[in-house]
Every structure is written in C-alpha cells, then in structure tokens.
Amino acid sequence: MSKVRNVFLLFSLFVFVTGASASTLQDIMKQRNLSEKDILAAAKTYQPSGRKDEFITFSSGGQSGQVIVYGVPSMRIYKYIGVFTPEPWQGYGYDNESKKVLEGGNFRGKKITWGDSHHPALTEKNGEYVGDYLFINDKANPRIAVIDLKDFETVQIVTNPIMKSEHGGAFVTPNSEYIIEATQYAAPLDDQWHPIEDYENSFRGALTMWKFDYDKGRINTDKSFSLELPPYMQDLSDAGKGVSNGWGFINSFNSEMYTGGIEKGLPPFEAGMSRNDNDYLHIFNWKILEKLAEDEKNYKIYNGHRVISMEAAIKAGALFLIPEPKSPHGVDVSPDGRFLIVCGKLDTHASVYDFNKIKGLIDKKEFIGKDPYGIPILDMKKTLHGQVELGLGPLHSSFVPEEGVLYTSLYVDSQIVKWDYKNLKVLDRINVHYNIGHVDAMEGKSAKPAGKYVIALNKLSIDRFNPVGPLHPQNHQLIDITGPKMELLYDMPIPLGEPHDVVTIAASKLKPKKTYDMGSDSRTGKPHPDATLAGSERIERNGKNVKVYATMVRSHINPEHITVNKGDVVTIVVTNLERAQDETHGFGVDGMNVHASVEPGKTASVTFVADQEGVFPYYCTEFCSALHLEMMGYLFVKDP
Ligand code: CUK
Ligand code: CUA
Fold first, then answer.
1. Are 66 and 117 in contact (CB under 8 A)?
2. Predicted local confidence at residue 205, as pLDDT
3. 241, 251, 338, 493: least CB-packed within 10 angstroms?
4. What pLDDT is stored for residue 11 in this prediction?
5. ipTM of predicted assembly, 2 dp
6. In the prediction, which pLDDT does 424 show?
7. What is the CATH code for 165-258+272-389?
C-alpha cells in the first residue's frame, strides 16, 4: 500500500509543482469513483499515443479457429490472424493463395472451415523463444498450423493422418526440431469402422512428431512420424529441455478405458472415467523414436505416415508410465527441465515430479509393473519431489525468473496461486473473474522466463463487462507480479471464441516486415509467378479461362474495364505497386464472394465463374487515399 501512496503523492506533487489545476486528478477520481489503486493500475497499463508495448501476446481463438494478437501491458488488440477459419479483412479464404493454405488442412479430402484452436507455441533455440514462427493446434480436426511472424500470416496447415481428435499440442522441442501433437479422444488409427466393444484392441491414442524444416519455415510431412499409444485419453503435453532434453511428457485420463453408454444403462463417461485413483503420465524419448522411425520393422504405415508400434518403443526404452493423481490436466516442465508440475482437476494438490529421479529409475530399469499394453510403470512415490495442496481445480502453471516460483490456476476456486515448487509452500493467492483456465507469465514456458506479469485466461466474465446478450466475452486479466503480492491491473474482454492459452514474447524479438518485396506471394514467401509491373497489365484468354494481370496504386486499378463471356472462369491477379508503409489496397468484385488484401508489394489473385450476365463494379476495399472511392473498375459479363 505504501508504494501506492508514494506514487499518488508524487503525482499530486507533480500536479502542484507544474501549476496544473491542483484538484484535477482528485476531481476525476471523485467523479469516476476511482481509488488510488485504480490510478496506479491505470498508470501501469496506459500507453500514451505512439508508445509501443513491451510484450506481444498470441492468444488462441478457441472455436473461432483464429489467433488473436495483443500487447502487454496495454492489452490493446492488434490483429486477428485467420488460421483454421476464413478471415475476411485479409481475404483469408477469399483469395487463391490463402485458399491453398486452408485446403492443406482438408480432413481426408473434406473441406473444413472451422477449427478449435488451443495452444500457441513459438519457435525456440536452446529452449528460448525466437520470434520467427508460431504454431497452433486444432482440437476439433487434428491439425497444426504454421504462422510466419514476418507478416503474421498462416502459411501452412497439416492434417494429422491418424488422429480423429487431439489436444496435447502444439509443443515445440528446444531447438524447434519437432512440433508435438498428442491425441485427446482415442479412436482407431485407421479410417475404418470399429465397434465400441473393440475399444481395447482397436482404439488408440498417439503422439505425432511433426518435423519442422526451419530454413524453409514449413513442416516436412514426409519426415514426420507418430507413436501408437494406449487408448487412455491423452491430454496436455510438454517437451523436455535442459536435463530432460530429448524427452517429452503427456498427461492422460481414463486409465479405466471406460467406454460409456448411457443408452445401455451404464454410468456416463464422466463417472466411468474417474473411478480409479490414478491416471498415467506418459514419458517418451523422441530421440530414440527418431531412430526407430528409420527402420521399417518398427512401424506400420497409415495414410502414408509411419506409426511406430508401442512394442518397438517399449523394447527400445522409449516409453514409460508414471501414475498421477486422477483426471490430470496440465503438465509443465520447469525452465531448467528438471521438474514436471502436474495438476489434476479432481485433486487439490499439484504434484512435482523430479526428472532426475525418473531418469534414475529408468537407468536402473526399476519398475513396479506393466500396463495392459506392456508399458513399464515407474513408482510414483519414488519419482515425486513432493505435492502441495493448492486449492480446488488446479489446471495450468507458468514459470518466472525467480528460482522455484510458479503461478498455478485454480479453476473451481477462481484463483491464481503463487507457490514455491522446490520448497513446496504456498506464497500468495489472488482472486480472478472467473473460472480461470490457463495462466501465462511472460515467456513463461521458455527456458528463460521474463516474469513481470501473468495473464489469467478466465472462462467466465459474468458481471465484469457491459452485457451484450447471453453470450458473454471471456476475460483476460493482467496481473502485476513484480511485488510480493499479486496485483490485478486490467480486464480485457475477448470477443472471439474461448481462448485456451496464450504465449507471450518480448516485442524486441519480433522483426515483422514493413512491406513485401515487389510481387511476393505472402503465403509461399516466394515471388508470385503472375506478379505484374506497371506497363505490363493485360488480359489473356485461353478457351473459357480469362486471366487478368492487374496493378493497384494510388488511386487507380489497371485495367479499369474487363469484358468476359458468361460462363468464363475469371482469374484476376492484382499486384500492389506501392512501396510506402501501410499503403494497403483491397480488391473485391461485387457479387462474386472474392476478396484480397493487397499490402504494399504483395501479389494476390481471385478466381470466380462469371455465371451471371451483367455489369459488376470492382473496387479497392481499403480507404487508401483521398481518391479511394475513385479506385474502381467494371466487369462486363456478356451472354455471347
Ligand atoms: S486446455 Cu482449455 S483450459 Cu485446451 Cu490447455 Cu486447459
Ligand atoms: Cu486503394 Cu482504396
């Protein structure tokens, strides 16, 4: 409190010395019913015009299938990145180049235009964040997307060839070798029908190691592989680092292998899946799996993809289980890689596992038994560093620079707990509003966390904002963690899906482009084959296919007249000839459901069938100059 008072006194003194109306601040505080604490929170988050944020946060967009970008500490939203879902402003899903990216995420040939994005992850070097690429998973239609942080655009989506549902991803190995994805709901790995009675035999979990080609900035699907896992419901996962580099960890629930059936008079999944006291933490060594994937006796092929058998992994010493308290959720690896923090939704404790102890037992081959699939089980007690009672519904944790300090979310209690996972004691707690899922500190999952703030990702906002109907925005709360007590600074409504998780990076580590090299395809990062320079605008016809090579520059589109026959397939390629920063043009043709955002230097194209006779204006959709409205042309469709 004394710090609050000091700042306030200083502020008052400033007002007094500078001769400004001595009562202004106090008047405003009175009028708006603000406390000293409120003024301090405002001073810590407010950015004067032109001032930039210290951190950039990437938030999953949940059922919107997108990524939301905002700044910390201001909590100003900067961008929605279209990922699994079309995004009209940037023409994502409305121009040909981005349609190709979205089509990369077709599910067994079926076009998918929504996703449930959960866990964003950044590229890493030695476990520290590098602002080159962002990855995010889709829980609904198991996929991973790659976003290029040179322009914050989605450049690749890969569909998992064996999973029907996933959740444990995207998690990146310490030098961005692989992006890990683990199943959620077990299902047969082949694309065949199997009855529920076949659950133990035919249903499987899996983990996929997506190989990331850093130089190309793309996932190499041919070099990617998977490991078959038991039909427990795998959940969140994390990659080892430091002492545990080369290993990975996946939580699971339903060690019961319960298969449900309310219609048969059985208890529902909810009851059947939480009968046992323990579930299993899966421990795998991806460096061994990488070698196993090179020898065809270790894997089976599904949909052209190598899936290592559990048998081969067990034999090679690459797969182990440790009991964990029932129905766990988050597993988080400490910055040095030594401790694994597991939180269980139905247990009030957090369990701290010591990787050195785990490794010791594995090296000595000291197991307490095997699961029904022959996977060696380690003794939970012998691998635990300890357990701490935190409160109701612990879910996720995030690390800070201070030795042993951890922030953990409590869903049921609606709190964040600050505790010491080395000395096993609670240090502080704060109420959040309400029902928090993930909690994330700045660079909190890296080998070098930055601390300063944590963000509470609250599932419910209830009474925090002006009501906008029965569907409420979710609430991201910014909390100052620089003092001994956590202090709530800011509530930000998130009006775009249920954001599950965020990842934050120091803004100084991001180096986005200001403009594109002239004639670039932003989705491939290469020169666009149909880029058009001033003077070479033209219309070419090849049978029923008409291709228009157009340019845009303040304040005209060239050509201004395009004439085609009814039934022609028309492609219009537009190049923005501008070299000035922020001089974006947009291109839309009325009635054709196409749109492209053409940033300076970019080339993009739209294709449509001119299936109706008539005259259709096309125009620039971005208010780009005083003569923006004049930036237009006409498409004439004749019935020949
Ligand atoms: S999950 Cu949603 S609150 Cu998908 Cu990381 Cu835990
Ligand atoms: Cu270009 Cu408006």
1. yes
2. 97
3. 493
4. 53
5. 0.97
6. 98
7. 2.130.10.10
Question: What is the CATH number that goes with domain 530-638?
Answer: 2.60.40.420
Model pLDDT, residue 17: 47
Instruction: Specify the pLDDT at position 326.
Output: 86
pLDDT at 16: 47
Atom 1 of ligand 2: nearest residue by CA position: 585
Q: What are phi and psi of 438, to 5 degrees?
A: -75, 155
DSSP H helices in 238-390: 269-272, 286-292, 310-315, 355-364, 380-383
Distance (Å) from CA 284 to ligand 1 centroid: 22
Return the CATH number of 393-497, one of 3.40.50, 2.40.10, 2.30.30, 2.60.40.
2.40.10
Q: How far is the CA of 624 from the centre of ligand 2 (A)?
A: 4
164 lines ligand 1 (CB under 6 A): no
Centre of ligand 1 to C-alpha 235, Å, is 9
Q: Residue 359: what pLDDT?
A: 98
How far does the centroid of ligand 1 lie from the alpha carbon of residue 439, in Å?
Answer: 10
Distance from Cα 56 to the centre of ligand 2, integer Å: 29
Can you give the pLDDT at residue 213? Answer: 98
* Amino acid 121: pLDDT: 98
Cis amide linkage into residue 434, ω under 30° from 0: yes
Is 305 a pocket residue for ligand 1 (Cβ < 6 Å)?
no
Quote the pLDDT of residue 457: 98
How high is the pLDDT of residue 430? 98
Q: With a cut of 50, list the residues of the chain below it in pLDDT.
A: 1-2, 4, 13-20
Ligand 2 contact, 598 CB (< 6 A): no
329 lines ligand 1 (CB under 6 A): yes
Nearest-5° Cα angle at 128, 343 to 429: 35
Question: Rounded to whole angstroms, how far apart are CA atoms 313 and 243?
Answer: 21
> Are 145 and 135 contacting, i.e. CB atoms less than 8 angstroms apart?
yes
118 CA closest ligand 1 atom index: 4
Residue 457 Cα: closest atom of ligand 1: 3
